[in-house]
Write a sequence for this structure.
């Protein structure tokens, strides 16, 4: 069976990149990230949990109203490679159903929790029509609170046309990630990058 494609970045002729967030929506942190993007007229892609979509539909609706994209990040954030193929399918199906119920739009990409996958999961993603989205700046480990300077510096080293950058807006203290975004977004725009959604970036892929 055909496997879904995995993207860490997109080969593009345009000066575009995508900033993505995992684990929301979160009522404390997500609105603070949204304010930064609103200030600079930029867009992001949020890989959301089905459980958090259920808990915080109002936050999700604001994200959608402000033009951001939603990606599937599973229903309950399990280690997907440890699940059966049927369980993997159910995780993606439940999350997709909730996203559609809350914002009326189907997600078009998937990011596996912990970035873990196996052949079964890639086959399931292909059935859903989901490319699998990773990122270039994984060494930031922003979820582990390594310091704002570390997050910014590691990310800067991975900035180029077509980069996919990963941060977290859900669970725990996201203050360092927020501080890094407040530095990086205006900096990237000043450098001439346009911050777009994953779907917009994928649409510019060249061979």
């Amino acid at each position: 069976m055909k496997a879904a494609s995995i993207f860490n970045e997109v080969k593009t002729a345009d000066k575009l990149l995508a900033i993505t967030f995992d684990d929301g929506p979160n009522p404390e942190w997500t609105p603070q990230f949204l304010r930064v993007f609103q200030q600079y007229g930029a867009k992001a892609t949020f890989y959301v949990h089905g459980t958090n979509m259920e808990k915080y539909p109002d936050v999700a609706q604001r994200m959608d109203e402000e033009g951001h994209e939603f990606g599937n990040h599973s229903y309950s954030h399990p280690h997907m490679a440890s699940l059966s193929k049927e369980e993997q399918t159910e995780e993606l199906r439940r999350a997709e159903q909730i996203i559609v119920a809350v914002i009326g739009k189907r997600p078009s990409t998937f990011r596996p929790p912990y970035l873990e996958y196996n052949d079964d999961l890639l086959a399931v993603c292909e059935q859903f029509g989901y490319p699998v989205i990773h990122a270039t700046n994984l060494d930031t480990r922003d979820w582990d609170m390594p310091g704002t300077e570390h997050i910014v510096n590691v990310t800067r080293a991975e900035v180029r046309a077509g980069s996919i950058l990963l941060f977290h807006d859900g669970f725990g203290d996201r203050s360092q990630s927020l501080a890094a975004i407040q530095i990086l977004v205006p900096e990237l725009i000043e450098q001439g990058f346009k911050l777009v959604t994953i779907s917009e970036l994928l649409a510019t892929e060249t061979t």
User: Anything to note?
Assistant: The mean pLDDT is 97. The first strand starts at residue 6 and ends at 7. The beta strands are 6-7, 16-22, 45-48, 69-72, 132-133, 164-168, 194-195.
